[in-house]
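TICKET: design request
STATUS: open
ATTACHED STRUCTURE:
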């Protein structure tokens, strides 16, 4: 979605304000001042620069987004390194896609998308449904079977999200817990990987045990 047209004066001023010291808090402050401005967002997106694109996501109007436009945004992310790609996709997910019923339906159609970032987002969305919700969705058995069959053939960014789903299924659903633990033991994904202090390991046997026990400890005795 690159634009060869000259940037507006407003977009140029904003662009000049970015430097290496620009923090996420600065972007959110800018977005709060600008509020919603889809045309400006698209100008900033057209620069192909990471921080301007982060701000663009914050000020987009999701009413202006449809399947073709979202696909174009995701395809544009390919020019960034993996870390920036996932950050941009996560921001788009949190700040735009989940705010609209039609865009949530779009996410739900991405399980077999040709774009890894969209597949990752589908699986992350399913994991988030379990993490955020009190009642597990009814498709856990189906999803777990797909994960068991395909996780080792997926790209790393998608594997992480599929593992995330299996982790939360194992935490919340007794009937699938042993299968989720066994999945981790068989794949050995993230086994022995160090995590920051206070974070839960992604290795499924450890993740499930720790997160399940946290919730068990909070239950009334």
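STATUS: resolved
RESOLUTION: sequence designed for all positions
ATTACHED SEQUENCE:
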């Amino acid at each position: 979605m690159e634009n060869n047209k000259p940037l507006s004066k407003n977009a140029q001023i904003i662009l000049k304000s970015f430097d290496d010291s620009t923090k996420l808090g600065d972007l959110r402050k800018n977005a709060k001042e600008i509020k919603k401005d889809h045309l400006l967002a698209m100008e900033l997106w057209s620069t192909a620069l990471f921080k301007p694109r982060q701000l663009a996501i914050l000020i987009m109007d999701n009413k202006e987004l449809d399947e073709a436009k979202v696909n174009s945004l995701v395809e544009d992310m390919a020019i960034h390194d993996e870390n920036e790609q996932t950050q941009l996709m996560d921001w788009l997910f949190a700040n735009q896609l989940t705010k609209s019923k039609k865009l949530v339906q779009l996410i739900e159609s991405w399980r077999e998308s040709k774009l890894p970032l969209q597949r990752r987002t589908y699986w992350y969305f399913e994991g988030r449904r379990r993490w955020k919700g009190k009642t597990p969705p009814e498709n856990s058995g189906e999803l777990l079977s797909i994960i068991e069959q395909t996780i080792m053939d997926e790209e790393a960014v998608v594997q992480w999200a599929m593992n995330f789903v299996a982790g939360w299924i194992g935490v919340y659903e007794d009937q699938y817990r042993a299968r989720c633990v066994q999945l981790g033991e068989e794949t050995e994904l993230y086994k022995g990987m160090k995590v920051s202090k206070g974070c839960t390991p992604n290795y499924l046997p450890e993740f499930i045990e720790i997160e399940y026990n946290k919730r068990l400890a909070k239950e009334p005795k």
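CLOSING REMARK: The chain has a mean pLDDT of 94. Residues 116-132 form the longest helix (17 residues).
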